Amino acid sequence: MSKIFETPLYPYQRSPDQDAPRYVRHPVIVVGAGPIGLAAAIDLAQQDVPVVVLDDNDKVSFGSRAICFAKRPLEILDRLGCGDAMVEKGVTWHTGKVFTDTRETYRFDLLPEGGHKMPAFINLQQYHLEEFLVRRVRELESRGRPIEIRGRNRVSAISNNGNFVRLEVDTPEGPYNVEADWLIACDGAGSPIRQMLGLDFVGKVFEDNFLIADVIMRADFPSERWFWFDPPFNRGQSALLHKQPDNVWRIDFQLGRDIDREEELKPENIDRRLRAMLGEDVEYELEWSSIYTFQCRRMEKFRHGRVLFAGDAAHQVSPFGARGANSGFQDTDNLCWKLKLVLDGTAPETLLDSYSDERTYGADENILNSTRSTEFITPKSEISRIFRDAVLDLAVEHDFARPLVNSGRLSVPCTYDGSVLNGPDDPALPRRTRPGAPAVDAPLDGGWLLDRLGDRFQLLLIGADGPERLNESGLEIEVLRVNPEKNPELRARYLGDALAAVYLLRPDQHVAARWSAWDEAATRAAIRRALGME
Amino acid sequence: MNRTTGLNTQPNLADPDGFYAALMAAHEGLTKAQSDALNARLVLILANHIGDEEVLKQALAAARKSARA
Ligand SMILES: Cc1cc2nc3c(=O)[nH]c(=O)nc-3n(C[C@H](O)[C@H](O)[C@H](O)COP(=O)(O)OP(=O)(O)OC[C@H]3O[C@@H](n4cnc5c(N)ncnc54)[C@H](O)[C@@H]3O)c2cc1C
User: Most buried pick, A138, A147, A516, B42, via CB within 10 A?
Assistant: First the structure.
């Protein structure tokens, strides 16, 4: 097993908080240094909000988990300074093949539209991602940004006191107490914070077991996602093969409901499965194996006073569709700018309720999609299996049945349709960039649009007149002028057939409102609305 | 919604007996499992042909409603 799991990345160090005569109060404490907690901390520190991360461990998360990262999370990670490292290390892919028995039934191409900085998908081991995030934390630290990770600091008690939170933290040198104005709980699916506060986490538990084997082999399978229904090497079940960097392949075998875990995990049994799938004389090394089951559920609300939940702590989905970590990054992307503006006194505390509203909406979308995929992959009843098999049989011959084949609907960005923060829309403009949608990337003057967006409110004037600068509610709004003639892709994505447009963008790069011409009063109202003031 | 695009529950088959016989013939000699599979394929083929979401919803509701207790 690779030594990455054993190397402490943020070893325990005594903090002055442990010797302070009184409880030290921090503006923001993040519990959990998984991918989502680290993303939250980096986002806040980049905006100069002091943040302390507490984690009960000091290493990357153990074993094999996420591998598949979608374009929108990559764009978010790019804003956080980790995008290039991920794309460089990751395996870029866009073709998926679906087999039934030994026949290819269906093939999809995520055909990445041209003119985007980030690819549609990459595969990358979660531990590499976590390493990049920790490296970014160190980089920010060395530049004097207010960020700190405390390893082997386990939160053992919490009191949520209305306008602050007090924690009890266990360390190798004994417990101490610390306080925060705001707490972000990113402590994973089993969230001790959620449990200590006695909060709900309802949803569906699925009974099928899946065996993960990550193997290192020199093989010439292409960089594609291969999914089998009912293959000869795993009769009546499904299987998945996907490539990761460093010649590591993720193989996922559905095992069914009532299984003997211990028996299945015996190396000789895993070996038997792998040889049946890959060929008798395949040479491989087993990097990791484990058996997992999954749930689809979420908290009713992601905000509880001064405690904000994000990532797996707030919601859990089945792995089909790669929506776990991918949606967690969309949580912190949504949360951090709001928290900063509330801490600055620019926006009312209630702005944070829109975090809960927008991200529970996103979670529902993910749960819906991943529950549907799960139903298709692991039919729950006889009739469900009959229809599933009918779809697969028809798909060989008939185009119409192929879109019905559901081997996981891969993560797509969430558009906050109907959000209270959304301002006016001009329906003459393209639908994909409507209010609530994340800005669609496009080449801009030799660079990329998304490299110019984010971290502050911005006004995008595309072939439209408008002010040089704008101040509203104590915020400086940056004005960006774009020449549509020189940027045809941007023009197509933001203007369509219109001649000009004015877009108001939030710090998380989502469109807040848009018009076909500059209207000062409407823009000011839309800014106040996006700040939760209207 | 335009009424004419709703589910047609009026007689619409030119030769009802002929269609019924063809349906039975399609199932002839099949096991129960094979027949179930055929029915499922048939439903999917017809559903795609209809395409209209509203009509399909009404058809599902009508089929469900006529179930024996
Ligand atoms: C088999 C599998 C495949 C997956 N594939 C994908 C995929 O392809 N794409 C994708 O996007 N997602 C995928 N996921 C989901 C993804 O792994 C999770 O969504 C992601 O890890 C969630 O990150 P998190 O930071 O919210 O939580 P975690 O990664 O669980 O991190 C929680 C952290 O909190 C710490 N902690 C817990 N309790 C305490 C405490 N009391 N005090 C201090 N610290 C504490 C833990 O040590 C841990 O570091 C997959 C998951 C599995 C199991």
Answer: A147
